[in-house]
Amino acid sequence: MNLIELFIIVFIISISGVFSPGPLTFAALAIGSKTNWKGGILISIGHLIVEFPLALAIAFGITFITSSISNLLSIFGGIFMIIFGFLIIKSAKNYEIKSFSHSPLILGISLSILNPYFILWWITIGSSLINLAIELAGLFGVIFMYISHIWIDFLWLIILAILGYQGRKLGKYYPYFVMMLGFILIIFGINFIIKIF
Questions:
Q1: Cβ atoms < 10 Å from Cβ of 147
Q2: What pLDDT is recorded for position 83?
Q3: S-S: 182 plus which of 85, 93, 140, 160, CB 3.0-4.6 Å?
Q4: How wide is the angle at C-alpha 158 spanned by C-alphas 110 and 108, nearest 5°?
Q5: Three-state DSSP class for 97?
Q6: pLDDT tier for residue 65 given thresholds of 50, 70 and 90
Q7: C-alpha to C-alpha distance for 56 and 128, rounded to whole angstroms
Q8: In this predicted model, what pLDDT tens digit does every residue of 157-191 receive, in sequence order?
Q9: Which DSSP string do the residues of the chain spell out, in sequence order?
Q10: How far apart are CA 134 and CA 6, in angstroms?
């Protein structure tokens, strides 16, 4: 295997996770409706702040996610998503996402670190990619593998943010579009909590 082959493998596997609808998907749309593509970049950076150290921790063989920690992440993540969803719905009439529109970076960090499914993806699928990268080129391979993955996250979240901003063209239906995004996040949050019990 060479670096080109590793890139292709990482690309194919990564898009399955990146394009799967999740909390970050709908948060990027909602934040983008206020901030355009800039919100997508900031959410992506927040996601990177959580994801890169996690990838390095797995590369160095650090296992720290137990079932109890995963359950706590699900509960707190679910509560966070429900609150954020309600804030989106409440602010839809004014086309503003007041509490979080100025901190999409924090939103990217929060929705990443509080999502046990994202962490589980890295512990399972991500660790397989990391092992391939280590076998190929050691730590450089891990960094190359991560860059091969993260640009897809950035591109997708920026596109979603732009689509959220373009949603303004819906005119009088635009508040309903934003409210729908809020309801979807609430459903995600409830689902996270229900799965614990």
A1: 12
A2: 84
A3: 85
A4: 5
A5: coil
A6: low
A7: 13
A8: 999 999 988 877 766 777 777 788 788 888 888 88
A9: --HHHHHHHHHHHHHHHHTS--HHHHHHHHHHHHHTHHHHHHHHHHHHHHHHHHHHHHHTT-----HHHHHHHHHHHHHHHHHHHHHHHHHGGGT--TTTTT-HHHHHHHHHHT-HHHHHHIIIIIHHHHHHHHHHHHHHHHHHHHHHHHHHHHHHHHHHHHHHHHGGGGGGGHHHHHHHHHHHHHHHHHHHHHHH-
A10: 11
Place of tokens 């359950």: 71
Tokens 């909390």 sit on residue: 23
Tell me, what amino acid is at 34? K
- CA 190, CA 85: separation in Å to the nearest integer? 11
